[in-house]
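Here is an idea for our session: we take a single protein and study its fold together. To get us started, please write out a protein record for me. Once you have written the record down, we can walk along the chain together.
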Amino acid sequence: MTDTVNATPPFVAAGAAPALAARPGRWIDNWNPEDAVQWATAGRAIARRNLRWSIFAEFLGFVVWQLWSIVAVTLPAAGFDLTTGETFWLISIPSLVGATLRIPYSFLVPRFGGRNWTIVSAGLLLIPAILLAVVVGNPETPFGVLLLVAALAGFGGGNFASSMSNITYFFPQREKGWALGLNAAGGNLGASVAQFAVPVVVTIGAGATLNLPLAGWIWVPLILVAMIGAYRRMDNISSAKADFAASAAALREPHLWVLSLLYIGTFGSFIGFASVFPKLIADQFPEFSAIGVGGASISLAFLGALVGSLARPYGGRLSDRFGGARITMLAFAAMGVITTGVLLVLPLGDFWLFLGCFLFLFAAAGIGNGSTYRMVPVVFAVRAGAGDVSTQRRAAAALGLISAIGAYGGFLIPQVLNISSQATGGYAGAFLGFIAADVALLVLVYTVYVRSRRLREHKI
């Protein structure tokens, strides 16, 4: 039975028709963020509360997803005997699994409810965190076991799709860019925090050894907090229904595949370079791989993911004002120029120039992440010609599918660098390929979106 709530916060929607209604299990009926009265009286507060806890849970998802990007680089110092190829596989396999999990994860919010699935998906992070703590404590652990545990870290990558799908239901069209950008940026920060915190906690007070198991154990209490917070403070929206027919139709929509390619170029570049940045620094500038500060070590690799994460919401905000296609095109132009700079700097052996170029590259990729993701709901709304609930469902499904396909870039970039290293002994060939990809994607976004008058009118 549904009870109409018209007096008790937070479900106050006086004057809205129909009024918001609450059911047991923190289910909300009659949710419509496009209703100005409902949004002003109750909707905004509810949406922001859910956004805050969604960001925290997704942040921990990215932490777990990216743990192996830094742990893999430290394994030799802990007594593990790994080849360069094996290290690259430990770095890239979480992205492969996480990208694949994003496909089913994008459908689970409508099936179970955003609040309910956030509890479950956060709880799943305990598995890879605890298993990592167990296996890295023994240098005799077989590579196959390490690879399996690294693959389970993909649970954290899957969280992104369900979290973004959930948040898109909570906000009106005019605020989706900023809300989705904040949600994604908060999650993306997990990569940076993991790369900063892990070297500190595993070296502080360790003397000549490493406390590698702490790389997993330190996140367990925070994961439990996320589960409790989601249970007590998040909500399920009954209108967030799965539309499998629309999802199947979205797969036949050419724009889904075009946007997926763009997202491989933006988010795939961000997560791929974030994963491999500690390895690149260790290979090219080993003296800067771990900088001693007091009794701990710090890896400057965390700066890349930090800059990219902070830049992402501004990609969404700029897109709200100028159009996502224009900002995405500029992001690809910047990425191509900056990657050329990286290629030129590599032979010089100057770490600070190398670091500076990469930080600009991360910033451009972060802005491109936000702008490309902002394009998705607008493109689907224009194609549908309406802003009704069914359009929102198609857009939510498309967001999940595109985030899944784009995340495969996190696997491709480390593997392309691995192939280049194995074939030539260096990374120049890989960076030439990345430059060519940036140019091709720039031409694609210009041809399909920027040049279209109809799409420009809707600030796509």
